[in-house]
Amino acid sequence: MLFKRYILFTLLYGDETYQIKTFAGEYDDLRELINKQIQPPNFGRCDGMGRCATCMVAIQPVNPANKPDLNLSCQLPINDELANKVFSILPYTP
């Protein structure tokens, strides 16, 4: 029997905090996971093509004195690098 190693991280959206438990391969990327589990309006409108910046997330730094790292969630694969991180889903602003 094979055991899956879970990846645990936190998503912040508005006033809500989501504790995520997933594993590599369950979703193609963080955008897909966010759309399936949280469903923010207008999030990831280009369907992962990396062209529109509607799936922006901020990775919260360990040291609060540092600035968050901004990324397109469609370019963040679900892997061990996400473990124990905190991501803020940024609102879509046209």
Overview of this structure, please?
Helix content is about 10%, strand content about 30%. By secondary structure, the protein is mainly beta. It has one helix spanning about 30-35; strands at about 5-15, 15-25, 55-60, 70, 85-90. The N and C termini lie far apart (about 50 Å). Strands 2-1-5-3-4 form a five-stranded mixed β-sheet, with no helix packed on it. β1 (about 5-15) and β2 (about 15-25) form a beta hairpin. The protein has one domain: Ubiquitin-like (UB roll). It contains one helix and five strands.
| Oligomeric state of shown chains | single chain
Which descriptor suits the 3D outline?
globular
Unreliable stretches covering 5 or more consecutive residues: none
> What is the assigned CATH homologous superfamily?
Beta-grasp domain
Q: Write down the domain tally.
A: 1
* CATH class annotation: Alpha Beta
CATH topology: Ubiquitin-like (UB roll)
Percentage of residues assigned to helices: under 10%
Which architecture would the CATH scheme give at its second level?
Roll
Biggest sheet, in brief? 5 strands, mixed
Within the largest sheet, what's the order of strands? 2-1-5-3-4
How many DSSP-defined strands?
A: 5
The ordered H/E elements are: EEHEEE
| Mean pLDDT across residues | 90
Distance between the termini: 48 Å
Features:
about 90 residues, Ubiquitin-like (UB roll), 5-stranded mixed beta sheet, 1 helix
Secondary-structure map:
Layout: E1 6-13, E2 16-23, H1 30-37, E3 56-59, E4 69-72, E5 86-89
